[in-house]
Amino acid sequence: MKVIVVGPRGKMGKLITQIASERDDMELVAGVAPAGRDYIGQDLGQAAMVGRMLGVSVVDDLESVIDDCDVIIDFSTKEMGMKVLELAVAHEKALVCGTTGFSAEEMQRFKDAAQKIPMLYAANTSKLVNVMNRLLEMVASTLKDEIDIEILEMHDQWKKDAPSGTSKEMGEIMAHAMGKELSEVAVYGREGVSPREPGTIGYHSLRAGNIPSSHTVFFGGMGERLEITHHSYNWECFARGACDCAVYLADQEPGFYTIQDVLHLE
């Protein structure tokens, strides 16, 4: 399976490049970087700091190499992500996107693209996070309005969007399990006189240092509390999951897929 990695110098792009280069079922055919980057034209292995040459180049024009691939993996920026999506549809190439921060209208474009290409969007490609999501769904559907739900998420100082895409997905899963929409029940932070409203889901975002990713969901009852937490020590778990998603997607018909499909969690 032939793969293009978008954003090979990013924290996820570097790891995806390294892991893909080590897999027998994946062949890297190019890296794609934003125009003006000083590593354009370099060998992909050099640009992604893999430690060895990979024999393919980093380019700034996806369209010039897109026909050489089966699947595109994109963990770049929301601005670049929309351009990648447009080209993937035009050239009918499968796309795995893990970039976060898209608006509802932009997310609809990904869903619309699934009519023409195999499209997999995942805010979080960690296997354990997605197992955690199933646990959250079970607790929320069982207890519903008997408990208070609060989400605490932590990331590095460079993360642009808040709350994280992963925590939004967690909130949506729990809200739907209770027969609600997240947009109707989410509360983002508190200040001053701000008593908790029953049935809401509270969000709290921390950004500090190089914390890779941490999500804790608190279920507060009277006289007891349940916490479900996922900590990543680095981004390797997400990169491995992204590669698994690409391999899965290569054999699929056009449609909108999730990592739950990859892990057979449905």
UniProtKB/TrEMBL annotation:
GO biological process terms on file: diaminopimelate biosynthetic process; lysine biosynthetic process via diaminopimelate
Catalysed transformations (reactions): (S)-2,3,4,5-tetrahydrodipicolinate + NAD(+) + H2O = (2S,4S)-4-hydroxy-2,3,4,5-tetrahydrodipicolinate + NADH + H(+); (S)-2,3,4,5-tetrahydrodipicolinate + NADP(+) + H2O = (2S,4S)-4-hydroxy-2,3,4,5-tetrahydrodipicolinate + NADPH + H(+)
Pathway the protein takes part in: Amino-acid biosynthesis; L-lysine biosynthesis via DAP pathway; (S)-tetrahydrodipicolinate from L-aspartate: step 4/4
A Pfam family hit: DapB_N
InterPro entries for this protein: DapB_C (IPR022663), DapB_N (IPR000846), DapB_N_CS (IPR022664), DHDPR_bac (IPR023940), NAD(P)-bd_dom_sf (IPR036291)
All residue ranges annotated as the Dihydrodipicolinate reductase C-terminal domain in the record: 129-263
Keywords: Amino-acid biosynthesis, Cytoplasm, Diaminopimelate biosynthesis, Lysine biosynthesis, NAD, NADP, Oxidoreductase
Described function: Catalyzes the conversion of 4-hydroxy-tetrahydrodipicolinate (HTPA) to tetrahydrodipicolinate.
Subunit structure: Homotetramer.
Protein name: 4-hydroxy-tetrahydrodipicolinate reductase
Natural source organism: Dorea phocaeensis
